[in-house]
Amino acid sequence: MDSSPKAQTRSGRRLLPAGRPPFWPVFGDGVRSEAITARVGSALGIAFGLCFVTGLLSHYQYAPWGWLPIPAAPAWGYRLSQGTHVITGLVSIPLLITKLWSVFPKLFEWPPARSVVHALERLSIAVLVSASLVEVGIGLLNILTWYPWRFSFIDVHHWLAWVVIGSLLLHIAVKLPIIRRGLADPVAGRITAPEAGSEPDPETVPAGGITRRGVLIAGGAGAGIVALTTAGQALTPLHPVALLGVRDPQRAPLGVPINRTAAQAGVRQLAVAPTYRLRVTGPTPFELTLDELEALPGVQRSLPIACVEGWSAGARWIGVELMDLVTRAGGNADSRVVLTSLEPDGPYRRSAISGSQLHAALLATHLNGQRLTVDHGYPLRLIAPDRAGVFNTKWLTRIEVGR
Ligand SMILES: Nc1nc2c(c(=O)[nH]1)N[C@H]1C(S)=C(S)[C@@H](COP(=O)(O)O)O[C@H]1N2
Ligand SMILES: [Mo]
Questions:
Q1: Which of 74, 115, 197, 211 has the most CB atoms at less than 10 Å from its CB?
Q2: Where are the chain's structural domains?
Q3: How far is CA 158 from CA 56, 83, 85, 131, 150, in A?
Q4: Pick among 3.40.50.150, 2.40.50.140, 3.90.420.10, 3.30.457.10: CATH of 255-401
């Protein structure tokens, strides 16, 4: 029998297992319960699921299969899916903290492993927890465009997502009976209130502490506040409370935020140089000066710009249909077209477009009724529907019409 005075409550409810070292921490039952863990865990599971699916949709824009080009409709598709991705990712942070808090004492289970299966199960949870923390952590830093690491964010974020979802499915399968039981348990009731046949542990549960319902309300409120204060960077009605939005469309020049300025991209001089030419290569290559470009028949289109970081803004664009130039260069609707920026380097100086996006794409010269600013891609930029912001290449100078 453990000689520690904490070993057991007066009611004898909390017998500690034999062999437990005296320094091993002891947790009261407190307000932690399967009812809370199952509820918070379910909400977290839904957030992770939505975040995973929308994340895959976004990843597809980076690496589409040749036979299945990115669709061009609905035009707001990427705006919705990436907005959802970022909101559910951020919402999962308070949910994850509440969930980990609710199971924290299990970390100190004694004995640490009862069997090989139990050890493997705990290992899979360790993988799930650590992968989840890194995944939401680097996602958050990416929104803040702060990269204090050397690895490729896109690759790590993508592959870790599979690790998280894989170990999450395993976790749900293993815990299903407990999840069911927990969801069926009522939440209400202060755990410190005496229950039939037992008394509370006065040492570990301070009187007047938070109730189980209080924990759920706090966790839910945290998630709700994060959702509301993030959504405003994409949903205009919520704009006044977009406290967590990193970019503010309403305070941006021409109403569209700028991720990378012309100065950051090193194109300030090149973009305004009188020697500017748009070179179009293909079976019948040609060149256009800016005057010639502007003399071409223009069209106007309303298309949102939606950044992978979650902000988005509706905008009106005036420009030339990309297909007009592709046809003139000897290409057709099935061509694969690569557009290159004046930017000397950087991962987003080139992008490829094909299929229905190519059909719908505009080479824009004007944004919201005015000439593009240099930061928005003057003299010429790409804009296409349902397309990730990163691939709406700015400062275009070269268009390659391939087969
Ligand atoms: N050449 C080039 N084009 C670019 C970028 C870039 O870094 N270089 N950034 C992209 C990103 S990440 C986004 S979200 C959009 C933003 O366009 P905006 O600055 O006009 O809002 O431009 C895209 N076009
Ligand atoms: Mo972006």
A1: 211
A2: 9-241, 255-401
A3: 8, 17, 13, 12, 16
A4: 3.90.420.10
* C-alpha 283 to ligand 1 mean position (Å): 29
Half-sphere exposure of 29 (CA within 13 A, CB side): 21
Mean pLDDT of the chain: 89
Residue that has been written with the tokens 């301070």 in this structure: 206
At position 155, the amino acid (one-letter code) is D
Q: Which residues line ligand 1 (CB under 6 A)?
A: 256-260, 265, 305, 307, 341, 343, 346, 348-349, 376-377, 389-390, 392-395
Residue 341, beta-bridge partner list? 396
Full-model pTM? 0.90
Residue 301's identity, in one-letter code, is R
pLDDT tens digits for range 381-396: 999 999 999 999 999 9
Q: What is the DSSP string of 83-119?
A: HHHHHHHHHHHHHHHHHHHHHGGGGG-SSS-SSHHHH
Q: How far apart are the CA of 252 and the centre of ligand 2, in A?
A: 15
> Residue 289: what pLDDT?
97
